[in-house]
């Protein structure tokens, strides 16, 4: 892929990934065929900041886990009143990292 | 989530569930704490409030009372019995049946919006019912 397009992608979508992942993303994108660009743009990436807000507001009901596609954990969180309240608080600190991790998984799936 | 992490997580969660149910059981010395952060803060019950009381009613064989308190209690009790047994059987037989089913079910739900919508409606309906019952 064109270097300019790669830089543009990293500039606009860099916040969705962990800092250490950006180098490997850049490498993969550089090798990527231009035809896959459309597929790449359709990857659903979640904003970690938005997910933190969702977790703060609806984390008790497992909404944050549902939104990330982790339905089983969402149901478990809902039925246990947010893991007796403990899981809710723990997730406020973990959800941003988990969002970036899932974004990377979705990105890698779209690549292959 | 890897198979190992998923199994450990659900086993620990089930164990916590059993400890909670036995600790709050009517014959255990009368502990009546609320585990619900939402209810503690807002004084409004959450969709799952009453699950412990529902399981306690079910434990003495009162299914009707259990359903009236919170139908989610039946679901939780079912999960508390099935999930740890299934995971332990998987570990002993060195199989991945729970993990595979879990992944397939999760993929099905994320690909079928109507399931999410239906589940959301049930949860909201149960929540409204919970608030009207002042759980």
Summarize the SSE layout with pairings.
The complex is a heterodimer of chains A (about 110) and B (about 140).
Chain A: H1 3-13, H2 22-31, H3 37-41, H4 48-58, H5 63-67, H6 71-79, H7 81-84, H8 86-111
Helix pairs in contact in A: 1-2, 4-8
Chain B: H1 3-24, H2 37-42, H3 51-59, H4 63-69, H5 72-93, H6 97-111, H7 113-133
Helix pairs in contact in B: 1-5, 3-4, 3-5
What does this molecule look like?
The complex is a heterodimer of chains A (112) and B (135). Chain A starts with a helix and ends with a helix. Chain A is elongated, with a radius of gyration of 16 Å. Chain A has helices at 3-13, 22-31, 37-41, 48-58, 63-67, 71-79, 81-84, 86-111. Chain A has 112 residues and is mainly alpha-helical. Chain A contains 8 helices and no strands. Chain A has one domain. By secondary structure, chain B is mainly alpha-helical. Chain B has one domain. In chain B, 76% of the residues lie in helices and 0% in strands. Chain B is built from 7 helices and no strands. Chain B has helices at 3-24, 37-42, 51-59, 63-69, 72-93, 97-111, 113-133. The longest helix of chain B has 22 residues, at 3-24. Chain B is globular, with a radius of gyration of 17 Å. The chains are: A mainly alpha (112), B mainly alpha (135). The A-B interface holds A 60-61, 66, 69-73, 76, 78-85, 88-89 and B 1, 10, 13, 16-17, 20, 35-40, 46-49, 51, 72, 75-76, 79, 102, 105-106, 109-110, 116, 123.
């Amino acid at each position: 892929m064109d270097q300019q397009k790669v830089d543009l992608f990293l500039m606009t979508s860099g916040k969705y990934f962990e800092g250490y992942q950006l180098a490997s993303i850049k490498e993969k994108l550089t090798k990527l065929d231009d035809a896959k660009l459309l597929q790449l743009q359709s990857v659903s990436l979640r904003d970690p900041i938005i997910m933190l807000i969702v977790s703060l507001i609806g984390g008790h009901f497992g909404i944050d886990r549902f939104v990330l596609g982790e339905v089983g954990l969402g149901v478990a969180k809902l039925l246990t009143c947010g893991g007796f309240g403990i899981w809710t608080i723990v997730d406020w600190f973990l959800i941003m990292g988990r969002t970036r991790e899932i974004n990377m998984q979705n990105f890698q799936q779209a690549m292959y | 989530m890897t198979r190992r992490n998923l199994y450990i997580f659900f086993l620990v969660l089930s164990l916590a569930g059993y400890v909670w149910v036995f600790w709050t059981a009517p014959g255990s010395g009368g502990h009546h704490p609320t585990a619900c952060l939402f209810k503690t803060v807002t004084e409004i019950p959450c969709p799952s409030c009453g699950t412990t009381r529902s399981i306690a009613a079910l434990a003495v064989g009162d299914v009707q009372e259990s359903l009236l308190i919170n139908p989610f209690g039946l679901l939780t009790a079912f999960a508390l019995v099935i999930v740890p047994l299934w995971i332990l059987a998987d570990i002993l037989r060195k199989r991945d049946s729970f993990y595979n089913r879990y992944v397939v079910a999760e993929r099905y739900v994320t690909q079928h919006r109507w399931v999410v919508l239906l589940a959301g409606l049930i949860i909201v309906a149960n929540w409204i019912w919970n608030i009207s019952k002042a759980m």
